[in-house]
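A reminder from the course coordinator: this example appears on the midterm review sheet, so study it carefully.

Given structure:
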């Protein structure tokens, strides 16, 4: 059965995953928006681009925090694990948080 090009491939999530590669001080970083990060993989928050970042900082979503996406909804909303808590984030907010994968080891 041929693969449907309109349907996302397993493990990728959505077809419009936006990866950003940055080289700084001789090290390369790959950034992705939180909504497109893989399920059940731990990622580090790099930037929160919201008018009121204090709102999500109070929930533990701040630069340097390690989070894990535990569920995704059809319209961009996600549930993440932050520390010992689970937090539901709407699609608009999840698109404005940039994360990077944790280094192995």
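Designed residues:
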């Amino acid at each position: 059965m041929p693969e449907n090009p309109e349907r996302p491939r397993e493990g990728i999530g959505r077809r419009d995953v936006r990866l950003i590669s940055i080289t700084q001080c001789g090290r390369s970083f790959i950034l992705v928006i939180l909504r497109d990060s893989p399920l059940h993989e731990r990622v580090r928050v790099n930037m929160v681009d919201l008018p009121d970042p204090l709102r999500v900082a109070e929930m533990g979503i701040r630069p340097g925090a390690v989070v894990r996406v535990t569920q995704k909804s059809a319209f961009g909303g996600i549930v993440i694990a932050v520390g010992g808590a689970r937090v539901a984030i709407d699609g608009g907010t999840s698109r404005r948080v940039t994360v990077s994968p944790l280094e192995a080891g």
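The helical segments are 53-57, 91-94. Residues 1-17 have pLDDT under 50 and may be disordered.
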